[in-house]
Each structure stands twice: as structure tokens, then as C-alpha cells.
């Protein structure tokens, strides 16, 4: 399989964004590893700028734009973390940012986007409404659309989180990410393929938004009607560019219910004293729910973000 991105592409993205991002820590917890029955290494993207890994892909996409395209600005749609990433990257690059957000997006994410000076347009909480609103703005402004996940520059940026993890922790038997639109997982798939092919790649997905799981079963992209989950960052429909990469590398996708996601989130808060959002708890829930798969193994876990509305905690 010849992939559309090389290891050199990912390393270039890392070089491009490194001056602007945090190299997030890899944390361990003896107690959590004991509960899970395996040795866990958490790549803490909840400590990333904007509180999520999306800063990586957003910055790489904006900084990769030619100068003439930057003039008209950038536009995207997102429930929050990618929105903040593009808003921050646009501010750093000195270009206008037009962000489409569903009305139901968490308040903390709305405030985050606004704080970077982006122009926000709210839409109905459907994929169709997001896409149509963004297309209208693009037509009016001439801004360049940057997909939250279905974009090779975004994927290369997200891949840098896994690159750093493999650089820091040797001999991982498995790596697991949350999966929504697929940028993080596609990036992890590429880095695993190039950098650590013996490592098995897995993903955790909410049971109420299982389009990746169903798509892999069917062998073709299969959207889910009206996805629903507490993991709001994982409600996006898998992108075709991401799917084409992921299906070649991934071992399995594990589905988890909202109560299991909340339980895993609470455990990380209580045992590790760090704040993660529901989407970041999904791979943790998947490990706890599939202990036989991971038993006794060295497992990397990407904690994707920590943007939680503290006024609406699920526990």
C-alpha cells in the first residue's frame, strides 16, 4: 500500500509546528495500569495549546497555505477543538478566521474560539447545516476551507502526536486513539506503519456514533444517521481520506457506551488528577472493556483533549 503521506511529510509537519505547540508529556499511573491489567502510557494532549491535539493539525494546515491564499483567510466547521485550533493558527499567521459552530457546542469551546478573535457563525447541529453554512461563507469571502479531519495537511499535523509518543516510549505493543472524523487515527496509522510496524493500532468509538466500526465491517464508508454521544468531539462522520489510510493499518475498533465513557473519564480525573474530556476517555473505556486484548501489554493511549464544561460535569 502506497500512502498519500510519507514519513518525511510528517517529520516536516512536526518541524513546521514545533515552535508553536507544546511537546506534551507522556504520563503513567501504576494504579490505573493495575486496574487495566496492562502498562499504560498516556500521551497527554489535554495539556496541548487550546486543550486538544487539534492544535497540531490546524497549525500545520494554516502554516502550509501559500501566501496568496492566506490573504482571504480560512473557514471551517467544528463543534469546538478544531475550531479553536484554526482560530489560534489564523491569529498566529495574521489571517482572518471564519468558524461555523453548532449551536449545541459546549460553552467552553465557544468561548475559546471567540478568545482568538475569530468570526463565529452558529448553525443547526447537523453535518448538512455545518457544511452548507461553511460553503456559503467560503463563497462570500473567498476564504480557504480547512476540513476538521479530511485534509492531508491536517492529518500530517495530527500524526505528530503519535510521532512524539513513539519517540519517547519504545516497544509499544499497542496504540489506541479515540476516533471520530479520523484525523488523529489516520495520523497514528501512518506513524505506526512507518515508525513502529510491530505495534498494533486500535481505536475506541462511541456506540452512538459508530460509523468507523460499521464502515470497516462493510468495507466502505457508511455514515450513521443522527450520531449521539456524550463524546461530542467524536460525532463527526469519518472522512474518506482518513478511512483509506485507517483501513490498511487498524487492528480493530472497540465500541463503548456513554456510561462506560463517563466511568473512564471519572477514573482518570480521580486517579491521575488530570482533566480529560469525554472524547479522550473513549480509548480508556475501550481498554477497560476489552482487558483480554491488552492484558500484560505495553499500551500507548492518546488522551485527545481536556475541554470540559465544568458547569455540566456528567458525574
From TrEMBL:
<dbReference type="GO" id="GO:0030378">
    <property type="term" value="F:serine racemase activity"/>
</dbReference>
<dbReference type="GO" id="GO:0018114">
    <property type="term" value="F:threonine racemase activity"/>
</dbReference>
<protein>
    <submittedName>
        <fullName>Threonine dehydratase</fullName>
    </submittedName>
</protein>
<dbReference type="GO" id="GO:0070179">
    <property type="term" value="P:D-serine biosynthetic process"/>
</dbReference>
<dbReference type="GO" id="GO:0003941">
    <property type="term" value="F:L-serine ammonia-lyase activity"/>
</dbReference>
<dbReference type="GO" id="GO:0030170">
    <property type="term" value="F:pyridoxal phosphate binding"/>
</dbReference>
<dbReference type="InterPro" id="IPR036052">
    <property type="entry name" value="TrpB-like_PALP_sf"/>
</dbReference>
<dbReference type="InterPro" id="IPR001926">
    <property type="entry name" value="TrpB-like_PALP"/>
</dbReference>
<dbReference type="GO" id="GO:0005524">
    <property type="term" value="F:ATP binding"/>
</dbReference>
<dbReference type="Pfam" id="PF00291">
    <property type="entry name" value="PALP"/>
</dbReference>
<dbReference type="GO" id="GO:0000287">
    <property type="term" value="F:magnesium ion binding"/>
</dbReference>
<keyword id="KW-0456">Lyase</keyword>
<feature type="domain" description="Tryptophan synthase beta chain-like PALP">
    <location>
        <begin position="17"/>
        <end position="305"/>
    </location>
</feature>
<keyword id="KW-0663">Pyridoxal phosphate</keyword>
